[in-house]
Design goal:
Layout: H1 19-40, H2 46-53, H3 57-73, H4 75-85, H5 87-105, H6 110-138, H7 143-172, H8 174-179, H9 182-211, H10 230-240, H11 250-281, H12 285-313, H13 316-336, H14 341-365, H15 369-388, H16 391-402, H17 406-426
Helix pairs in contact: 1-5, 1-6, 1-7, 1-9, 2-3, 3-6, 3-15, 4-5, 4-6, 4-15, 5-6, 5-9, 6-15, 7-12, 7-14, 11-12, 11-14, 11-15, 11-16, 11-17, 12-13, 12-14, 13-14, 13-17, 14-15, 16-17
Length: 435
């Protein structure tokens, strides 16, 4: 067997430290609020939107499906834009696109709503691709923790917009209620600009230090800002075991299939859980809505649980198995003891927050350098979201075909099985975050 070709050493990158690091974390949080909140704002006022625009429920449903389709179909385009613009410029473009799409969606008739939704979907797709790469580049020794912060923040954003949008709409109408979330993008822009300036200043300082003879940027200098962190070293070791291009690695496609199972479960559950509870238990609309809130809030615990498991065991597969167990509890629990829906929703919610985190962290660990992280993320998220977009349709079709909820719940259980069977060999055996 011919020896593996040597990979070029990763280009030194200035890491944010001190105040700049906190600025970078704040930027991660604000971007996360922008990449899910505007999408979660629409479903609670879907009835008002349909009535005002004089369109069918299916036409309104298209407004909720289009962004997820963009996440899948437009991922290669988003990846090319990230490579062309650069990471920080791409993230800034994402936020500006979210602002433009949010305003356009509320500005006119149904055509404007569709156009604004497409702008939102494309902008968020760019953010989906850029953010894991930026986290890996800025926080190589804390990829799991900062990814958890990112995941938790967009779940918090989804919960807040789901809860508050109907209240604003009751007094100001759905247009202002949806457009109001553009304020979050407005707040993010100056922070991203400040963070970009800080990053450029750090890069110039690191370049100057590296050019100076005998300085602290020598390869063995401890604490060098340009030195790859332990997580980057672990990722390089993992990827070096497979010298093939990203798209020819079985692990990449296994992670994509696992992410598809995760996304299918998430979108299928969020679309149909309230109606299922209303049919099976006769719960009120407010109680059914509470199930969605429990599901989203519990994701915060799951997102931070994965880094804890990784730090404790060093085994991503343990985190994956716990995620799959939490997901499986929802369909099994609703089949056997639906009156405990709040417990099953909480456990599945924690699982969905943890599932995103473990797959994204694994995609980083399977890659060497920012370009590979971007390419891996593009394939994993593109294919995964494309599968996930079919979740509401397939679950709904199973319900229509059987006039019951047993078949839909078994479909969701099958998606969890896909996550388990593809994810187990897809995630790395070991992961050693820095302590």
């Amino acid at each position: 067997m011919p020896p593996d070709r040597a990979r070029p050493a990763p280009r030194p990158v200035a890491r944010p430290t001190g105040r700049a690091a906190w600025l970078a974390v704040a930027a991660v949080v604000l971007v996360a609020l922008n990449v899910r909140g505007p999408l979660a704002a629409l479903p609670p006022v879907a009835g008002e939107v349909g009535a005002d625009l004089a369109v069918t429920a299916g036409a309104v449903g298209l407004l909720t499906t289009l962004p997820v389709l963009c996440f899948g179909i437009a991922s290669p385009l988003a990846s090319a834009l990230v490579a062309r613009w650069g990471l920080r410029e791409a993230v800034l473009g994402c936020v500006l696109g979210v602002l433009a799409g949010t305003v356009l969606r509320s500005a006119g008739g149904y055509g404007a709503a569709v156009a604004g939704t497409l702008v939102l979907g494309l902008a968020i797709t760019v953010g989906n691709i850029a953010m894991p790469v930026l986290v890996a580049e800025d926080f190589p020794a804390a990829v799991g923790l900062v990814t958890a912060v990112y995941t938790a923040a967009f779940n918090i954003g989804s919960t807040a917009t789901t809860a508050l949008t109907p209240l604003v709409a009751a007094g100001a109408g759905w247009r202002l209620a949806l457009a109001a979330w553009g304020v979050v993008a407005v707040l993010a822009v100056p922070l991203l600009l400040a963070q970009r300036r800080s990053s450029r200043a750090s890069a110039r300082a690191a370049a100057s230090a590296e050019a100076a003879p005998g300085d602290a940027a020598a390869p063995d200098a401890p604490g060098s800002a340009a030195r790859p962190g332990p997580a980057a070293t672990a990722a390089a070791a993992s990827a070096a075991a497979d010298p093939r291009p990203v798209h020819r690695r079985p692990a990449t496609w296994l992670l994509a299939l696992a992410f598809g199972g995760q996304s299918f479960s998430y979108y299928g559950t969020t679309a149909w859980l309230p109606e299922l509870l209303a049919d099976q238990l006769g719960v009120s609309a407010s109680a059914a809505g509470a199930s969605a809130a429990v599901f989203q809030v519990a994701a915060v615990a799951g997102a931070f649980g994965v880094p804890l498991v990784l730090r404790t065991t060093g085994r991503p597969r343990v985190a994956l198995w716990l995620v799959c167990a939490g997901w499986a509890v929802l369909p099994l629990g609703l089949l056997t003891a639906p009156e405990l829906w709040w417990a099953w929703s909480a456990l599945a919610g924690a699982a969905q927050g943890g599932g995103i985190t473990v797959v994204l962290v694994s995609a980083v660990a399977r890659s060497t350098g920012s370009a590979e992280v971007r390419r891996t993320g593009t394939l994993v998220q593109g294919a995964g979201y494309a599968l996930g977009a079919s979740g509401p349709f397939v679950v709904g079709a199973a319900h229509d075909a059987t006039s019951g909820w047993t078949a839909p719940l078994l479909v969701l259980l099958g998606a969890v099985a896909v996550l388990l069977l593809a994810g187990t060999p897809g995630v790395p055996r070991r992961y050693a975050p820095a302590r």
